[in-house]
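[09:14] KT: can someone run the structure on this one? pasting the chain below
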Amino acid sequence: MFIGLTASKLVTRSSCTDVKMVLVMHRLSYIKAGKVLLQKIPINNMLLKTASAVDPSARGHSETIRLHKNLLELVKNNLSEEEVIKFLQEIYQYQLDPTLPHFNSNTRIDN
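[09:31] RB: done, structure tokens below
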């Protein structure tokens, strides 16, 4: 959960239990709000559903390959034949390449 650099410093330096309690309550409210949103506004967009297969923690699962192929079907009209072939090659390389580092949920992938 992102709270900003200044707020993060204040929370980590604070010895007040109320500050930490507010942070816990804040985090729980985000989770609860997300669950309610998913119930009330389900994600019916197939492109968004299949894009979740790009998550590094999903690598190596058979369902991930199926979702990647489904993603290709959704965007195929925007790709040349060479790009479609390259995409298929990259799907299998991504799934099967033993040299890729193992996913660690504590590591940021946007750096």
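[09:33] KT: thanks! The chain has a mean pLDDT of 80.
[09:34] RB: yep, looked fine to me
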